[in-house]
Design brief:
heterodimer; A: 371 residues; alpha+beta; Rossmann fold; OB fold (Dihydrolipoamide Acetyltransferase, E2P); 6-stranded mixed sheet; 9 helices; 21 strands; elongated; B: 265 residues; mainly alpha; MetI-like fold; translocase (chain A); membrane (chain A); Spermidine/putrescine import ATP-binding protein PotA (chain A)
């Protein structure tokens, strides 16, 4: 929060970082580059290594191997209190024996900053999170959302070039979470600090981030913008973790130039080349599928699958259907508001263009880790 | 919940009876201390302050009182420092060895006082510690340590260690974190440990009887020898003073703990 407004954040470079606890590899050869001032979200299910990565950057956990640079300098072996990195925790971690004002002044007092300047900076930080009126309260007198805003002020008051947040909104209700997401976005814009944000909530990741790194089983599956991950998932795990999706599995057929799957007697084709020895699957986003009554006029070049509606959800702007396919799997369709609506139990037909399906390799492990 | 009136009356009576049973023996000394005659008869006859006067002026009594006070103060400090360090060590150890060590440190509370006293006496004879200030301090510290350990461990258990991680992220090293975060938050536990240690030493009698000498008597020893020699009502006066002092000390300690518990909610 320098007077000049925008200040550049620090770049982060993790290179071949591993962290092992006994035989368990919490981080398995992670490499990640974060641009100065970027909002990077580490997304993944619990136990996927995202929080371990954050702890490694913060200095709470030492790496087993690999290199870690913050702002161009290696911080391997540097203790947490010398790294000058702000951290916001899910559990707020405010000091209960200090007022809000003293909590926020704490990092400044440690840095030997004179009282007058300290007070000015505390006020500015509390203003930024809109908590200036609460400086004389104790944390126990605040709500969860208020406590987290104070914790945020405390983590930015000493102008760290990097701010880490570990599921900061995890303990709050949905309404408050959505509002604070926008607040965090605003603060990121105003500060220009590099933010690294850990969450398991993909919607939150999409709202906040410049880029998202998707974690699974101690590895990074893919790094990209929300759009990259939604439109072009690199792995089936990413495709299923971000947004709704329909995954088609079947007996592969077809030649070198296209892929055909036999799904319980119905064949679908996609114009992608299926490489190698892995089992191919097709992933479809809900808006790429069209739902209609069977026997309607056939459109050329469209794949068709039959099934029965197992769930119909009215969304206001449209409807979402879950359709049980012949092979027992479930497809998810979103259709815009039309005159036609489908009832549960009705037999329907799903159509999609082959080029809208994403061909991916089947990593059957994705099923177990998603739960 | 509604209660039958008769039940309520019976319950009240039972409570009063139990309360009397617990407190009455202690309160008997109060009227006895104002006795006019040199006897420990109950009920006492007349009213006088002479036994309080005797306590203050008779060097036998005042010396033993100051002995006790000196020993208790040193023991309280020593036991608090050692007990706090032990509690911290155990808190940061792996669970199994910590459990064993904890049991070992708490044995002075479990072992019969007489057994402990014999052991200490035997060692002290060789080490020439019988009847010395150092001897009393060391023996009482062993006895007081478990109380500090329990009190500090209890407050460490509710202390959120993640606050230390947060302090580190804000730039606080180990010592700064301890001074500004950990210590203030477990201070009530340490303070109540200190009080218990003081009181444990101040009214310790069993071990003290063994390691005492005519030149170094603590107040409880003096009370015991006085009451076995003659029926001196000064004992009752001392008892009354001690009763008031400990009530204030322990009551204050409990209030301190209670306030801490409420504010941490």
């Amino acid at each position: 929060m320098s007077e000049t407004g925008k200040q550049r954040g620090a770049a982060i470079d993790l290179s071949a970082v591993s962290k092992a606890y006994g035989s368990f590899r919490a981080l398995d050869d992670i490499s990640l580059h974060v641009e100065p001032g970027e909002f990077m979200t580490l997304l993944g299910p619990s136990g996927s290594g995202k929080t371990t990565t954050l702890n490694v950057i913060a200095g709470f956990t030492e790496v087993s191997s690999g290199s870690l640079q913050v702002g161009g300098r290696s911080v391997v072996g540097v203790p947490a209190h010398k790294r000058n990195i702000g951290v916001v925790f899910q559990h707020y971690a405010l000091f209960p024996h200090m007022t809000v004002g003293r909590n926020v002044a704490y990092p400044l007092a440690l840095r030997g900053i004179a009282k007058a300047e300290r007070e000015a900076r505390v006020k500015r930080a509390l203003d930024m999170v809109r908590m200036a009126d609460f400086a004389h309260r104790y944390p126990s007198e605040l709500s969860g959302g208020q406590q987290q805003r104070v914790a945020l002020a405390r983590a930015i008051v000493f102008d760290p070039p990097l701010l880490l947040m570990d599921e900061p909104l995890g303990a709050l209700d949905k309404k408050l979470r959505e509002w604070l997401q926008l607040e965090i976005k605003r603060i990121h814009r105003e500060l220009g600090t590099t933010f690294v944000y850990v969450t398991h909530d993909q919607e939150e990741a999409l709202v906040l981030s410049d880029r998202i790194a998707v974690f699974n089983r101690g590895k990074i599956e893919q790094v990209g913008t929300g759009r990259d991950l939604y439109d072009a998932p690199a792995t089936l795990f990413v495709g299923r973790f971000i947004g709704d999706s329909t995954v088609l599995r079947g007996r592969p057929r077809g030649d070198r130039s296209s892929t055909a799957l036999d799904i319980a007697g119905e064949t679908v084709t996609a114009p992608h080349r299926h490489a190698g020895d892995t089992q191919p699957v097709l992933l479809l986003r809900p808006e790429k599928l069209t739902i209609r009554r069977p026997g309607s006029d056939r459109r050329d070049g469209h794949n068709r699958l039959s099934g029965t509606v197992s769930e119909a959800i009215y969304l206001g702007s449209g409807s979402k259907y879950e359709v049980r396919l012949r092979d027992g799997s479930t497809a998810i369709v979103r259709s815009p508001l039309t005159d036609t609506s489908f009832a549960i139990g009705e037999t329907v037909e799903l159509c999609f263009r082959g080029e809208d399906a994403k061909l991916l390799a089947d990593d059957s492990t994705a099923d177990t880790t998603l739960t | 919940m509604t209660m039958h009136p008769l039940t309520r009356v019976l319950l009240g009576l039972a409570c009063i009876l139990v309360g009397l049973w617990l407190v009455a023996p202690t309160l008997v000394v109060v009227p006895m201390s104002f006795n006019e005659n040199k006897s420990l008869a109950f009920p006492p006859q007349g009213f006088s302050w002479q036994w309080y006067q005797n306590f203050v002026t008779n060097p036998e009594w005042s010396t033993s009182f100051f002995n006790s006070l000196k020993v208790a103060v040193v023991v309280a400090i020593l036991a608090t420092v050692l007990g706090t360090l032990a509690a911290f060590g155990l808190d940061r150890m792996r669970a199994r060895p910590a459990g064993l060590l904890r049991m070992l440190l708490l044995t002075p509370m479990v072992v019969p006082g007489v057994v402990l006293a014999i052991g200490i006496y035997a060692v002290y004879l060789d080490a020439r510690l019988v009847g010395t200030m150092t001897g009393f301090v060391l023996a009482h510290t062993i006895l007081a340590l478990p109380f500090v350990l329990i009190a500090v461990q209890a407050s460490l258990e509710v202390f959120d260690k993640r606050l230390e991680t947060a302090a580190a992220s804000l730039g606080a090293g180990r010592i700064a974190t301890f001074r500004t975060v950990t210590l203030p938050l477990i201070a009530p536990g340490i303070l109540s440990g200190l009080l218990f240690a003081f009181v444990t030493s101040f009214d310790e009698i069993i071990v003290s009887l063994f390691i005492t000498s005519p030149y170094m008597k603590t107040l409880p020893v003096q009370i015991f020898t006085s009451i076995t020699r003659d029926a001196d009502p000064t004992v009752a006066a001392v008892g009354t003073i001690l009763l008031c002092a400990t009530t204030i000390l322990i009551g204050g300690g409990l209030l301190l703990l209670g306030r801490d518990r409420r504010s941490s909610l």
